[in-house]
Design brief:
heterodimer; A: alpha+beta; D-Maltodextrin-Binding Protein, domain 2; Dipeptide-binding Protein, domain 3; six-stranded mixed beta sheet; five-stranded mixed beta sheet; 20% strand; globular; B: alpha/beta; Aspartate Aminotransferase, domain 1; Aspartate Aminotransferase, domain 2; 2 domains
Chain lengths: 495, 423
């Protein structure tokens, strides 16, 4: 899509999530239309340039730094000032406050929905894990949840006043601004207290801070948000008078249901999780599976991302006879095609494989460790930010507290924890993460298959490399045709 | 006139300074006030050297100025450098040290940003390990508490102790000689950020026992902005520092030898080279600012550095007592019980609610309203506190020779009323 259009037609599903559930959601690109975060990225930056992965202020007036007194010298206390000109599309329009940001972060900890991005927050922000764990099991209703939120605090997140927020960290973390730029860290208005997070009721009552607001009228369309002004938003624009969304759109400008030519310059990884709690509990069996599958990737962190190491030693294993396994995979064209190849490889070595496609919701439950009824899980993981991002792979995939398998090696956990405690020293943290990766690979619970760039929708649209290749339907200017070479090294095996 | 300055009253000396009569300047910790005469030197020398008809390079080495200033601090011309500011001096020292991967530097989280920034650069560039100690804070802190923190952080890989002579955030005068002796016992190089020392303390740099001391020329010394002093130990006086001279690379230098190497560093009290010249020679210099800084130092000698130090600290004790009476010793981040740690910088929490200590907006507003509503200039500072997860913010006042008791009393009274109003 080039230049402004009167009516932008999208082919996509219409089950728009609440922002708290936007991470890895197929419609996360639509969330960017109506939800702003403290920080974000520019969709109009040259792909591959440093500007494309550098966070910029969004709801905030500036990226906090020691220079602007937004960051203490110890590196664990951030003072974030909010713009005074960002409003909810309420009647009358109401200013977005620091308390709304606090509410959004509390909502992210809800026991009723488990975000795939949660590991970043829990391991970084002081008291967030305690807050998440402090929800009593007796909570049942939205009122219960709101009552809990209104009487308990995240120790390291507090509002000084309506326009000023303090975020304190357990350890210095140079990537915390990127973490707070994730769409799931959007503020939540007080109206959301009436709904359980990402419930149908919440989805039907979404409020907007972005350039558009969703309108549900049997279908889904986005109309300009009257409470939004271009002067208040340095990253997003309104390029269409209305945006219509339908899974059956016959002539879409942009089709979010197909995977077009990648435009993001940061690679992710297709990987398998071999469930150590079932027939693959034997280490040697997992090694044999890893050995039997045709793979082009042998590390979890792809080239071009911080912490990538060129090679990892392979180990041989042995398969027990007559094993019958379930292979779960997202029900997408790409995952289905990859699954077909895996089945072929494993059948060839004498295994019986049942392939089970997963809906997005089922896939989310499996990846977040909430469903373990599979022996092999196929998924993809793309980097959530573009610099100092080794932990963006290893923490969610390999740490036992967060991994899809729900288990892991103690040594891997120790190394990742040591890295998180030293994020202000990339030499030490990257070294620890590389060691963790080697241990994880040797354990063969996580088996990398191939590196690939995040898929882009058909139709020309900017990709936000730093948000896992999220398409940016709000980019202010048309992107250049075709990506320019990245300053980061990209291996040929990744394509 | 010159001989008379030592005998002049403080109110007469106050008249030497370009101060706004309606303003109360309690922020020398950030920048001092120039004497009129120093201002005149900047102007006169700038005019003298404008036109490009003179050879600008020889005077840029400031041989006479450095010798005179050196004498004031008990050191020689080859050990004294006129720099652009304390930050430049610290950066040239930190990056001139012969540190390698795995070597450790012990410093504190209460250092100036420019020190921590340069150490972080060293960490990334060479793999040097930077161990950061959080200094104790509060009225009752003792010098031994500080030395213990440093001693506990030293390992067999430690090569350098880097610390502020007086911390800018809490105004803690570190036990400099004790820390240098600790360094001597472990064979460590000592790098002191002395930004607040010059012009405040009547001290013998050599006797402190440090290897490097980088000072500001525009804070307590009241020279022009963009001036500083750097002491580089260039000879061995065992009674002060028995260690050999550290390997040191005078980065940014015109006259470091272009062929061959300088002589080996001396092991005696006689220098083997003029390390000061190596550092001082860095292209064309701001001759006017150097001359003005030298004049400010002369004025200090004429008034009497011992007399100035006594005055500054007597005013500080007056202010400390007033602050303690008004806000309580529990509100004070600056040491008070241990006289060795006191400085003329006094940091305190002005509000009733202790939680306001991590409310930067409220503390900043307090300082801002002192300026806008009462024409009292202080500043707010930020630092970490042992055992607290929060970044703390404090109001800080600084006394200098041009202040007087009445304005300090008035300022503390105003602060008390404003804090009450804002609490």
């Amino acid at each position: 899509m080039r230049g402004p259009v009167e009516r932008l037609r999208l082919r996509a599903g219409i089950d728009l999530p609440e922002p708290v559930a936007a991470h890895r959601h197929p419609l996360a690109a639509l969330t960017r239309l109506h939800a702003r975060q403290l920080f974000t990225y520019r969709g109009d930056a040259v792909p591959g340039s440093w500007q494309s992965v550098a966070p910029v202020a969004d709801l905030a007036t500036a990226v906090p730094s020691i220079y602007n007194a937004g960051l203490g010298a110890r590196g664990t206390s951030y003072v974030i000032h909010l713009r005074p000109d960002v409003y909810w599309d309420t009647t009358p329009a109401r200013r977005v406050t620091a308390q709304d940001v606090v509410r959004g972060l509390k909502r992210l900890c809800t026991p009723f929905y488990r975000s795939t991005a949660l590991p970043y927050f829990l391991s970084t922000i002081r008291g967030m894990a305690d807050y998440r764990d402090g929800h009593p099991a007796s909570l049942r209703t939205a009122a219960d949840l709101a009552e809990h939120a209104n009487t308990h605090d995240i120790a390291g997140v507090f509002a000084l006043d309506e326009q000023t927020l303090v975020v304190e960290l357990d350890h210095p973390a140079v990537d915390v601004v990127d973490v707070l730029a994730l769409p799931c860290a959007s503020p939540a208005p007080v109206e959301y207290d009436a709904f359980l997070p990402d419930s149908p009721q919440a989805r039907a009552a979404l409020r907007s801070t972005g350039p558009y607001r969703p309108v549900f009228d049997g279908g889904l369309r986005f109309e300009p948000n009257p409470a939004w002004t271009p002067e208040s938003d340095l990253a997003r624009g309104q390029r269409a008078s209305v945006i219509t969304v339908s899974p059956d759109e016959p002539t879409p400008h942009i089709d979010l249901t197909v995977e077009g030519e990648p435009t993001s310059t940061l690679l992710g990884v297709d990987y398998l999780v071999l469930n150590p709690r079932g027939p693959l509990s034997e280490h040697t069996a997992r090694l044999a599976i890893a050995d039997a599958i045709t793979r082009t990737a042998h590390t979890i962190i792809p080239p071009g991302n911080d912490g990538h190491q060129a090679t990892a030693p392979a180990q041989a294993g042995a398969l027990p006879a007559a094993l019958s396994l379930t292979l779960a995979h997202p029900d997408t064209p790409h995952a289905t095609a990859v699954a077909v190849g895996i089945v072929a490889d494993l059948v060839a070595v004498g295994l019986t494989i049942v392939s089970r496609p997963l809906s997005p919701a089922e896939s989310h439950r499996a990846v977040t460790g909430q469903a373990g009824d599979w022996d092999i899980l196929l998924d993809s993981w793309f980097p959530d930010w573009g610099h100092d991002n080794a932990r963006a792979f290893l923490l969610p995939l390999c740490h036992s507290a967060h991994s899809p398998a729900g288990t892991g090696q103690r040594r891997v956990d120790e190394l990742i924890d040591a890295a998180l405690a030293a994020l202000d020293d990339p030499t030490r943290s990257t070294s620890a993460l590389r060691a963790a990766e080697l241990h994880a690979l040797a354990d063969a619970v996580i088996v990398p298959l191939a590196f690939r760039a995040p898929p882009a929708p058909s139709g020309q649209v900017a990709a936000l490399s730093a948000l896992g290749g999220l398409p940016d339907l709000t980019a202010r200017t048309p992107v250049a045709a075709g990506p320019v070479p990245s300053p980061r090294r990209i291996s040929e095996v990744s394509r | 006139m010159e001989a008379g300055l030592r005998a002049r009253s403080w109110s007469e000396i106050r008249s030497l300074f370009a101060l706004d009569a309606d303003a109360t300047h309690l922020n020398t910790g950030t920048v001092g006030a120039m004497p009129h005469e120093v201002l005149d030197v900047v102007d006169r020398v700038t005019r003298e050297w404008t036109g490009g008809l003179l050879d600008v390079y020889p005077p840029g080495l400031y041989p006479e100025h450095r010798a005179a200033i050196g004498r004031s601090y008990g050191v020689d011309q080859d050990e004294m450098v006129i720099t652009h500011n304390a930050t430049e001096g610290m950066a040239r020292v930190i990056h001139g040290l012969d540190l390698r991967e795995g070597d450790e530097v012990v410093t504190t989280s209460h250092e100036c940003y420019s020190v921590l920034s340069n150490l972080n650069l060293l960490r990334h560039r060479h793999g040097v390990v930077v161990t950061v100690v959080t200094l104790p804070t509060g009225f009752d802190v003792r010098a031994e508490d500080v030395v213990e923190r440093f001693a506990a952080a030293i390992t067999p890989r430690t090569k350098v102790l880097a610390f502020a002579g007086i911390t800018l955030f809490t105004g803690t005068m570190l036990p400099i000689r004790a820390l240098c002796e600790l360094a001597h016992r472990h064979g460590l190089t000592t790098v002191i950020d002395g930004a607040l020392m010059a012009g405040m303390l009547d001290c013998d740099f050599r006797a402190l026992g440090a290897d490097f001391i980088s000072c500001s020329g525009s804070k307590f010394q009241c020279g022009p902005l963009g001036t500083g002093l750097l002491y580089v130990r260039n000879k061995v006086h065992p009674e002060h520092n028995p260690l050999p001279l550290p390997a040191f690379w005078p980065i940014i230098s015109t006259w470091y030898p272009m062929q061959g190497t300088p002589p080996p560093r001396t092991t005696t009290s006689v220098e083997s080279c003029n390390i000061g010249d190596f550092l001082q020679s860095a292209g064309s210099a701001s001759i006017a600012r150097g001359a003005a800084l030298a004049r400010a130092c002369e004025l200090w000698d004429e008034i009497g550095r011992d007399r100035i130090e006594r005055r500054v600290f007597e005013l500080a004790e007056h202010a400390r007592t007033a602050v303690a009476e008004r806000f309580g010793t529990a509100a004070m981040y600056s040491p008070g019980a241990d006289q060795r740690l006191r400085s003329p910088l006094i940091a305190f929490h002005p509000f009733r609610d202790p939680a306001d200590a991590w409310n930067v907006k409220k503390v900043a507003e307090f300082v801002s309203r002192l300026e806008s509503e009462h024409r009292i200039w202080t500043r707010w500072t930020e630092f970490d506190v042992e055992g607290s997860p929060h970044q703390h913010y404090a109001a800080r006042l600084t006394t200098h020779l041009f202040n007087d008791h009445a304005e300090i009393d008035r300022a503390v009274a105003v602060m008390g009323r404003l804090a009450e109003q804002m609490s």
